[in-house]
Design a protein that fits this description.
The chain has 556 residues and is of the alpha/beta class. It contains 15 helices and 27 strands. Helix 10 links the parallel strand 17 and strand 18 (357-359). The chain binds zinc ion (2 copies). One zinc ion is lined by residues 22, 79, 81-82, 167, 393.
């Protein structure tokens, strides 16, 4: 499909084919001269497959190139998968940033919590606000989700109007904030919607998500019926859940103690922005020990099994202030996101092992997802009636299910794309017309590294088979000086017969050296290569693994 003339295009630079690191761009103009807006700039969390890596960020080299044509970044909400890359990446762009009050306040609080983080000015847009960025007219539309102030974006252009849903669900009773703005979305349908770019997270799940209010009711019953201490763990950003726990605690005369920095930060931002109005002040963690067991509810971070978070430390009896004992009740008001299941199970088993009662969403309605299930996706399509639908915010399976559902619901054109695909929305036949550079960056300690670098594969190899370091000195006549030195890291000490592996490596080096013709021995590179091959072969013979081997040859 050829690109040509004045067009409206869309490209995901992250968040498509994976859940996390959301970044979408919309462009207007002809291919040589487009003006862009970006929506969100999020991270993904790295699992065990990326040893030593904390976060995955979208590679924004394309946006850096196009920086002068980038009119701004519009944030939908304050979840890490939508705004978590700003502190690291915004300084490379320095374009105007837009978000609603809670999102702006949480970004600021997060920034202040990270020493050395750059100042990031946010233009605060009121709920339901509207802004103009060059040829883009952008209107915020409130969506219910699992954090305050999730917003869809209605993006009006000369080629038609796009609904970028952001993260949403239909919840008539979301505990805090307005429900999803059905009226505005139906009005958009009447006005005419060219394209819907939508959340696919729960496209494989039938029916509708239960409401936050149902969860609140169930939490209230569980807190009321507890006899000893109660702890509730949830995503700190779920302020509706925090509010529900606080109201439930207050109803049975219990104080709420916040445990964990993220919980304190969110509570403070939620107070400032009015989402905890009418809720009694929380008590600091130092007061925990003075409160009778039946007078306290601890709200803890660590619902995803994070080893340094409050709950993991409590479960290991390693928390300075907070302890739990036989008969106390811990409620997981959360679900482990894929990759975290083992860590969460370890904590659950640790608690159960101490005779602490653990309640999860397997048996009680103590958690709901913030994303739309299939009946909700159908409602949205019915309200907005888009000509084109592009599934995003999902893995391949979620997007395929969302696409199939949209086709069945009568959407004329469905485009399934991948990160870096450039999709023409209008005019003409919508579809993928080109590619733009896209990829991943890893946050490795304080540094950002490109995913293509050898760093992580090398680290994985080290984790699998360790490393052998060999040092030897050779004269300019090709004679060995002294004994080769061998150092092993991450390698078994002996083989099956009890021979030292270091000895096997040592013999291999000597044998390799001595079998080289004398003139070759004067070439340090040739010596190093021969020794390296010999060590790897000798260890493979007894161990069936080939470690990384570094040989340093000194010539004297
Ligand atoms: Zn979200
Ligand atoms: Zn999200």
């Amino acid at each position: 499909m050829a690109s040509g003339g004045d067009e409206l295009v869309f490209a995901p630079l992250g968040g498509v084919g994976e859940i996390g690191m959301n970044l979408a761009i919309y462009g207007l103009g002809d291919a040589r001269r487009r003006q862009w807006i970006a929506v969100d700039l999020g991270v993904s969390f790295a699992g065990e497959e990326l040893p030593g890596i904390d976060l995955i960020l979208p590679d924004i080299r394309y946006l850096v190139e196009e920086r002068r044509n980038l009119l701004g970044i519009v944030l939908t909400h304050a979840h890490e998968d939508h705004f978590g890359a700003l502190i690291d990446l915004w300084p490379r762009l320095k374009v105007p940033l837009y978000g609603t009050p809670f999102t702006a306040a949480l970004l600021e609080a997060k920034r202040l919590g990270e020493p050395g983080a750059p100042e990031i000015p946010v233009n605060v847009v009121p709920l339901n606000g509207r802004l103009t960025l060059g040829p883009f007219d952008i209107e915020y539309v409130s969506m219910a989700h699992s954090i305050p102030e999730s917003n869809g974006l209605i993006i009006r252009t000369r080629h038609g109007t796009v609904l970028h849903t952001g993260d949403w669900k239909i919840d008539p009773t979301p505990v805090i904030g307005p429900p999803t703005d059905e009226r505005k979305l139906r009005a958009l349908g009447n006005e005419g919607c060219l394209a819907l770019i939508g959340d696919s997270t729960n496209a494989v799940r039938e029916g509708r998500s239960p409401s936050e209010a149902d969860v609140a009711k169930s939490l209230a019953e569980l807190i009321k019926s507890a006899r000893g201490r109660v702890a509730v763990t949830t995503f700190a950003s779920n302020v509706a859940r925090i509010r529900a726990v606080a109201e439930a605690a207050s109803a049975c005369d219990r104080e709420v103690v916040l445990v964990g920095r993220a919980m304190e930060r969110i509570a403070q931002v939620a107070r400032e922005t009015g989402y905890l109005d009418g809720i009694r002040d929380f008590r600091s963690v130092e007061t925990y020990g003075y409160l009778p067991p039946n007078k306290v509810v601890a709200l803890c971070t660590g619902s995803q099994g994070e080893p340094r978070a409050a709950l993991a430390r409590i479960a290991e009896d390693d928390h300075p202030e907070v302890t739990f004992a036989r008969g106390d009740r811990v409620i997981f008001s959360s679900r482990a996101i894929p990759g975290n299941e083992k860590a969460v199970m370890r904590i659950i088993n640790g608690l159960v092992g101490q005779d602490i009662e653990v309640i999860t969403d397997r048996t009680h309605l103590v958690h709901v997802s913030g994303h739309p299930r299939r009946a909700e996706l159908e409602d949205m399509i019915g309200w907005v009636r888009p000509q084109v639908l592009i599934p995003v915010h999902g893995e391949a399976l979620h997007m395929a299910e969302h696409a199939a559902l949209a086709r069945r619901a009568g959407v004329g054109k469905v485009v399934v794309c991948r990160d870096g695909d450039l999709v023409r929305l209008a005019p003409g036949d919508p579809g993928i017309i080109d590619e733009v550079p896209a990829g991943r960056l890893y946050k490795d300690g304080a540094l950002l590294v490109e995913a293509e670098q050898r760093t992580v594969p090398d680290r994985r190899r080290l984790g699998f088979a360790g490393i052998v370091s060999v040092a030897l000195a050779v004269t300019d006549k090709g004679e060995l000086v002294g004994d080769p030195e061998i150092e092993l890291t991450g390698i078994p000490e002996t083989d099956a017969g009890g021979t030292l592996i270091a000895r096997i490596a040592y013999d291999a080096v000597l044998e390799a050296f001595e079998s080289m013709p004398r003139p070759r021995r004067r070439d340090p590179d040739a010596v190093a290569e021969a020794a390296r091959r010999a060590v790897r072969a000798a260890l493979a013979a007894v161990w069936r693994k080939k470690p990384i081997c570094h040989v340093h040859v000194l010539t004297i």
